[in-house]
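ugh ok fine here u go
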Amino acid sequence: MSNRFLILVDELTNFDAKKVKKKTKMVKSQAYHTQQTPVAVAGAVIAGAGLGWKIFEFAWAQTEGDIKVKLARLEGAKYPSDDEAQYKSKGIWKPKTVTVYEKVENLASDEISAKFALRFKYNGYGVGYIDIDHIQSNDAVGWGLNVEAKLMVDPNNYTSRNGGQTMSMIEVTFNYRFTRSIGSDVIKLKRYKIYGDGTVI
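structure:
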């Protein structure tokens, strides 16, 4: 009889179902906690993290006809020099929304497009709490559309032109790839730099 078999027999002999039940029950009772809306990060993967912030990226989702989107979200905020203790409560947090939209028309003047609401918060120094919602789309015959949103936290500090204070910046990109059955793809890139003083470039 091999040593491997003897070890297996020993494990089965000493198996205690009550202990396993107790352990399973303890795991189930642990509450999964996220910063604001736990449902929003279900099925997402962490694409990046730093002091006080995390970037979540979602899987591709079919929305309407031949339109697919892959969105991202940032929980927390980026502060100058990652100094959360100094800058988190230094200013009043304000919300801001940017509408993102791009389209292509086919030969029949039918439009394929997608529109998004880019929402974030800022307090004059830090910037973050980014959500991207797909709010409208239109499909067109013979065309498809894939839109991928990406977030990039800039480690550098910037000086505000609206007060001279030190602030952070996060870059958001939307890659629109318009596909068609005949002809090459059409790619349109929209890039936004959002700053701690609310400026969007």
